[in-house]
Amino acid sequence: MKIAFASPSLPAAGAVVVFALEGRNFSATGAYLDKLSAGALSRVVATGRFSAKRGEIVELLAPAGIDLSRVLLIGLGKPEALDALGAETLGGNVVARLASSGEEAVTVIVDEVEGVALKPAELAARIAYGALLRSYRFDKYHTKKKPEDKPSLAKLTIGVAQDGAAKKAFQPLEKIAEGVFFTRDLVTEPANIIYPETLAKQAKALEKLGVEVEVLGEAQMRKLCMGALLGVGQGSVRESQLLVMRWNGGKAKDAPVAFIGKGVTFDTGGISIKPAAGMEDMKWDMGGAGTVVGLMKALAGRKAKVNVVGVAGLVENMPSGSAQRPGDVVTSMSGQTIEVLNTDAEGRLVLADALWYTQDRFKPKFMIDLATLTGAIIIALGNEYAGLFSNDDGLVEKLTAAGKATGEQVWRLPLGEAYDKMLESPIADMQNISGDRAAGSITAAQFLQRFVNGVPWAHLDIAAMAWSKKDKPTVPKGGTGYGVRLLDRLVADNYEGK
Ligand code: BES
Ligand code: MN
Ligand code: ZN
Questions:
Q1: 383-426 residue pLDDT tens
Q2: Given CB 3.0 to 4.6 Å as the disulfide criterion, which of 113, 289, 404, 423 pairs with 430?
């Protein structure tokens, strides 16, 4: 969808959106249109149940006296309570309403409204950002769509007095959205298209933004003794890869921040094979890696003033004659040995080597890993929060604040010695699952902690967040891109120019 900013005048044709305020009236342009239509807007409000709640929309088709195909009233809610996130919801809802309406262009008039704390330019930019995020589609494999089933909306214009300032405020947001879209694309692609080598190849495209991209193959990982990661991939005909991306936007001597993603491009469970029903979902078991790649795109795109390392462990977990067996003992890069009791607890094995490698090579300020790691986190938190585990209270605070600001929320769960003990193995330094099902997400995090070597670290279990079965205001159902906005914000608020 194309987005433009212009001065706040009514378009010659198409649809227009104006604000309605909870418990009050219309914005200035709304009041003007009401007059032009001899009170049609007021009558619509008086007749129905529209109460101008945040993001609520009522639509008038071809109102008499107005030379437009439709007028939409969108509720601002209480003006005092309207923040950046609320503004994004407005934009998202406009797109959701009009995407397949037959309307090709829409103009949103951002009038100044008393009580709204956001500056009009910022309000306008955030509406545009929300609209853009919601406009995402993944259509490439539909070859037979009828024209009437295709989305119509192609252009959104924001009319605002400070259109220059709004455009400027939108620039970095557009770059973040491009990162989010990249993640959504990678997550949505099926596993016959995106596998370790092709995912790494996609990431190579970031080089044109100035990101340094390195890809290690199995021979190199063998030299590094990454027995935990390699064991997971050994049953697949696809070669495992370690993807290493670097964006150097900060001072040369500054230690980088590091993000590490689980990139299991398909998780059958391996020899501990998963049931058939729903197994197709495991194409998005590379969601953590997808987020790290999209985040690098966002940060490089907006030229963030920070040094960043992005690492993704890319493997396919398959059953075959060469697959690892339950009970196998592998040696990780850290030197610690692991008894693989369940080949379906593979994400932690991949991350064990990716985390160790990252701290060993880059000495980062902190490491944050993202992983679709456990089904148990979906049981614990539903689809509202990612599970957060950390050895650093400061990092938790910053992540929690970034979560609130972006709507990509996190909720901390505990770590502790008693949980760690549940990983003791009779034959190796640890086993990859605990003896029973209790605290499954925590024992998984506890396993990861054994490979961070004391570095400040946070683990985000995004198993419930990488994919959505429902539309949200700024996230259409499907691959969500969860984590790109969260971590971009964490970096922007805490690690740039400081
Ligand atoms: N990729 C799965 C976790 C998952 C489940 C992600 C559902 C998204 C949706 C992970 O590799 C896995 O299989 N975990 C097991 C761990 C168990 C064997 C200890 C699980 O959660 O069942
Ligand atoms: Mn698994
Ligand atoms: Zn998995």
A1: 999 999 999 999 999 999 999 999 999 999 999 999 999 999 99
A2: 423
Q: Is residue 344 lining ligand 1, measured as CB closer than 6 Å? A: yes
Decide if 59 contacts 24 (C-beta within 8 A). no
The CB-side HSE value for 241 (13 A sphere, CA atoms) comes to 26
| Two tokens, residue 109 | 């008039």
How far is Cα 406 from Cα 71, in angstroms, rounded to an integer? 30
How deeply is 239 buried, as exposed, middle or buried, from its count of CB atoms within 10 A (0-12, 13-18, 19+)? middle
pLDDT band per the 50, 70, 90 thresholds, residue 149: confident
Q: For 455-475, how does the pLDDT look when each residue is reduced to its tens digit (9 = 90+)?
A: 999 999 999 999 999 999 999
Q: Crossing angle of helices 484-494/393-406, nearest 10°?
A: 120
Percent of the chain past pLDDT 90, that is, above it, reads 97
**DSSP state at residue 207:** G
DSSP state of 436: S
pLDDT of 220 > 70? The answer is yes
DSSP letter string, 84-133: HHHHHHHHHHHHHHHTTSS--EEEEE----TT--S-HHHHHHHHHHHHHH
CA quadruple 439, 445, 447, 450: dihedral positive or negative? negative
Place of tokens 């593979």: 346
Whether the CB-CB separation of 245 and 211 falls below 8 Å is answered with: yes
Give the tens place of pLDDT for each residue, 239-272: 999 999 999 999 999 999 999 999 999 999 999 9
Q: Tell me how far apart the alpha carbons of residues 156 and 110 are, in angstroms, rounded to a whole number.
A: 13
Residue pair 332/356 in contact by the 8 Å Cβ criterion: yes
Cβ–ligand 1 distance for 400 under 6 Å, the answer no
Q: Which residues are catalytic?
A: 274, 348
Residue 37 Cα to chain centre, angstroms? 43
Asked whether 232 lines ligand 1 (CB < 6 A), one says no
Instruction: Kindly give, in sequence order, each residue whose CB lies less than 8 Å from that of residue 376, ignoring residues fewer than 6 positions away.
Output: 437, 439, 440, 441, 444
Residue nearest to atom 8 of ligand 1 (CA): 463
